[in-house]
Amino acid sequence: MSAVIDTNVLIFDTFEDSEFHIEASNGLDSIEKWHLPDIVFHEFIWFFKSEDYPLSRARLKIEEYLTHEKSAFSQCTADDVRFASKVSNYSEYNDFIILSIAKRLEFPIFTFDGQLRNKARKYGVQAVKV
Fold first, then answer.
1. pTM (two decimals)
2. Which domain holds residue 79?
3. Residue 130 forms part of a structural domain
4. Tens of pLDDT along 26-36?
């Protein structure tokens, strides 16, 4: 099975003391191919910045996900931007980019975000069950 991976999965997988670390790690282990949208890496870096995480360690973690044998870097297209730009407020934009990529690739989404799961359901995108 392939899935589009949300940022929170990478965050929970990265930090062993996080609330859903085991679920994130086990979920990633069970997925054969991780489609990692470009926006996920931007959010991941912004998270590290907000936590004052050392840049050198952030680079290593980014590289680890980029080069993992299961990883596929999924770039945003003009159609993804069009889809996401129809949001009702700016705060939904990043989620809608991820959702659009999942919809376009026809893969489920792996996320711990309940609101994103609901949006996915609304647009006919499955969510990975952990």
1. 0.94
2. 2-122
3. no
4. 999 999 999 99
The residue type of 38 is: D
Domain count of the fold of the chain? 1
The C-alpha atoms of residue 113 and residue 6 are separated, in whole angstroms, by 8
Report the 10 Å Cβ neighbour count for 30.
Answer: 12
pLDDT tens-digit map of 9-68:
999 999 999 999 999 999 999 999 999 999 999 999 999 999 999 999 999 999 999 999
| Closest C-alpha to 110, from 17, 3, 29, 30 | 3
Which candidate, 88, 90, 91, 110, places its Cα nearest to that of 101?
A: 110
- Bridge pairing between strands 2-5 and 71-74: unpaired
pLDDT at 73: 95
| CA nearest neighbour of 94 among 11, 38, 29 | 38
- The whole-number pLDDT of residue 129 equals 81
